[in-house]
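#random but structural
TW: two for the price of one
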Amino acid sequence: MVELVPLELPGVVFDFEYRTDDNSKLSAGLDYYKNVNESQYSQMEARFGDWSGTNPGDLQKYGGTDIKTFCMSCQFKSVDLDTSNGTAYRFDAVKAWDGLAAYYSNIAGFTPVLPTSVSAAAKAPYLSGFAHNTVQETVKAAYVQFSMEGSFLSRPVKILAGVRYEDTDVLVTAYQNIPTNIQWQQKNNFAILQGSSIQPYQQKASYSNLLPSLDMAMNVTDNIIGRMSFSVTAARPQYSSMYATTSVNAPGNPSYLGTTTTASSGNPALKPLISQNFDVSAEWYYGSNSYISLGYYRKAVQNFIGNGVTNTSLFGLTDPASGKSGTRSGAAVTALQGLNEPVNTNTMFVMTALVDRAGGNVAQATEQYETLTDPAGNTYPDFGTFQAAMFANYPVTGNSTDPLQIFALSQPINNQTANIDGFEFSWQHFFGDTGFGFAASATTVNGDVGLDDAANPYGASQFALEGLSNTYNITGIYEKYGFEARIVYNWRDKYLQQANASQFGGRYAAAYGQWDASVNYELRPNIILSFEALNMNKGHIVQYVRVPTDVINYQELDSRYELGIRYKF
């Protein structure tokens, strides 16, 4: 179950306005508010068997439902698929759960497959995943804005200029089991020891932004208007990227012998996207309802989110296998070198465990190592059985003499910049008073950071701008005698939906076009009849990875028709 509950708390707003005349106005204000986002996630699991599929027939025999086969590939009408391998299955999952639970609960000696860390009865659901995060943003802001209408070179001009300053304090709380220690269990096997209860874990961050803006419009002629604007805008990061829940992984090898111990978390210190925006456009009004406009826009965006790795300690966890001077593992390394013994995962663990149980008495531990005697006084005939006994009975847990464990913490960071620009064109024209007309628009988008789909699929992740594509639409219009009719074609070029979707290749949405139509008729001033036809050309949604032939989703859509009536009281 996943639950996202955004909550906006009341704020305090103070606005001030001063007019010098009918055409000029100075505004200012203060703003204070809090945003709180809370996310809770829990996952319950009950296991009836493992992945080996030992008794696949049990589902149909005891699941309380009939499994029906059907040809999945035969369902598609617009694409030629191989029907020989299109078999799929349908069954009632709820009935299957109830039936299997009842059957397995009556089998003597049936052993459910459960993780060793879970204490649960056979088939009993248990909590297998949990996360609880809150993000609180406290925002203090002030703004000043000036607007005026005047003239320049005897032509009308409108100006709107202002600046906003925002200061944001972030408090992120993660409720999780806090790791308490690292335990070296044997050779290269380590475990993270968790606390017995869920506790809050908090991180704080803050940032501030200065956001100016300027908008100007000028009637160049009686029929042509020129516009120009510049602004700096901010877009806050997604809350899910800021969650502080931190997952630490156990080391894969003693750090003395070389290893990288990893961890992952969100990043409460993420800063918002900052975009410097510039727009310039011209509009020509050559009729009462007809015009043409052309514009250019450019956005320089910084603080895009990528992935970063920093080396840091977490939760005060210490490293029981550092081999550093003054530690048990360091004393063990020195002792092994004094005996001309190789220092590897086996010998280092055994000697460290002996030093640990001897309370730091290196001489005693060395004698036990040489005589193959464990801390309980048991002597073994060879080193293999001796080390096996040490592995099984004498784990080494980090303590205050050990240095802090260093983790390679992977988390989202602000480390990318990109530029976006393009043109916008629109045209609306009506043919006199006939009621007929058309409207058309097009937008081009260019980004300077794309995805290299020819890159090594086993290489590093890539940053690329997502969701950018050219679009256009054209609309036929009729408005007269109570009728309002539209026929529209919308088209969007292919675009990148997700970078690094599969082996660092991109997932794309293929180009898509759709015809729609609508007719409204005003039967009376308060009664309107309507008809709408959507996707008349039966356009389909196609998603692919890297190349168009590697299709991962094909959604066959049909036309939809709606008939309605609206009554105004």
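TW: number two ↓
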Amino acid sequence: MASSCMSSASRKVDFSPVTSEASVLEDYPTEMSATEALTRVKGFCSHPHRHLCAFMRRWARVQKEHLQLTQIWMGLIFVIGGLIIGCAAAGIGQASEKTEELQRYWFDQYNWLAWVVVPFGLTLNVLITRCFFDGTAGSGIPLEMTAFILKDGDPNILRIFSIRIGIGKAVLTLFGQLCGASSGREGPTVQVASIILLYSIKLADRFIPPIRKELDKPLGDSGSHLRDLYYRDAALVGGAAGISGAFNTPLGGIIFAIEEMGGRFTKTLGQMMVLSVAMAGAMSIIVQGYHVVFESFDADENEMSDTASLWVSPIIGVVGGLFGGIWAMALLVGVHMKKLFLGSIGGTYTWVFVCATLVALIGYFNDGDTFGSGFEEASVLLSNTGEGLDGDHEELPPKYYFVLKGLATILTYLTGIPGGIFAPTIATGTSVGHFVYWAILQGIDKSVTRPKVCLLGATAYFAGVTQSPITAFSIMLGMIDSRGSYVPAMLICSVLGWLSAQLVSPRALYPALAESRIPPLPPESCQKELKALPPPQYISKKDIERQADFIEVSMTLPRITHV
């Protein structure tokens, strides 16, 4: 019996920890006899405070070794940048609404002013842009895409992202809307948001030593530094946060960045994007309150049976996508034609004045419906009672409104003023739905409602123009009270619109516009600091180094963040 007890006492007991805290208990033996274990237990019971203090010291030492203060600082910067972006997006949005109200007021009171304000105002806008704010022309998204293929450290990044460009982009976009341009503020908000986040990192690089030390680290064997990576990714994350703040759709912002503007993602970048997008969306809601853009759309009154959705969605999706592809192709052809007139200053401004005069012509003979972003007209079409954004009852736009609005948007873009095409595209798409409802669906099934068809038309047309179906679906979903059977119908229309648009326009719009790269500095430019810049250096799509850089980024970031 005694030998049995002795043999059991001499057996080894395995006390090795099974959790990840094994390193914290490394000072304890992993194997001990039962007698030794009992002795340690008695010692702990007699002096528990000593053992607890020793354990806490070891735990603090291990945590200090794994603590990454740089990542905490960087995350904080992305959070603060997102908050600032949310405020800026809300401010630009409210200013845009007030500007469009002023534009409608002067046109309603003195519609003959359209022949003066629109052509001369837009020409003056282009003159200011080319002389003092080079890099603000257009929506801003194609230029951002160009920034992603600039070689690391290229100083021409200043022609896309700078404080001067951010201020000029916002002010000149509003000025264009005041003059009657058919443009929106969402695209410019994306560029402004990227500038805010990029300069947030630049300020941290200058004034916070741990971040400066981190950004000085080499990035693989490419000769670049982590600074170049963060600057480039800040533009991408800022663009996503800008969409989130502009449309109050955080999910739409993230998908937009993935589908439209970015081709490489890492775990760290994804975390920073979620932080900035969430903060931008939250701050935008705090500043201007939570509201959907198209509050006039009644989800309950526009329910559609499953059977009707099955045959209505394919028709709307295909027709809307084809019209979207035709519009995108027409815009690309117009951009190509515009290059023929850029050989001289006189030719450039003649082109601008003619395009602006045609914008005035279209708007004047259509009661000003084609001026501005078009959200007012879209809201009327999406309402059962004809309510606009301000709740007033208005007449429905004409059946052919999509032709007029689409043409006015192309002409506005070709002038070269700062302004986006997101909002006019959505307005044009709702009119496409209205046309299909009037020409086809109304005579087949009286139970099909006009607002729902207009919503599906906007989704399909938007997807056809951008050829980014999930982005179009998520953004449109965030602009309405998203519930009801029309949600899967919207997704079907978005995918079918994307597929059908490729039959007409195989190239996606924004990447095709980005191929123009950074244009030469205008000869009348007064920006002396930009004239001294060398020609831009791009990373070719066929260049193996670009693909190696992408791979190096994804492989290096996790290793850097755990140093």
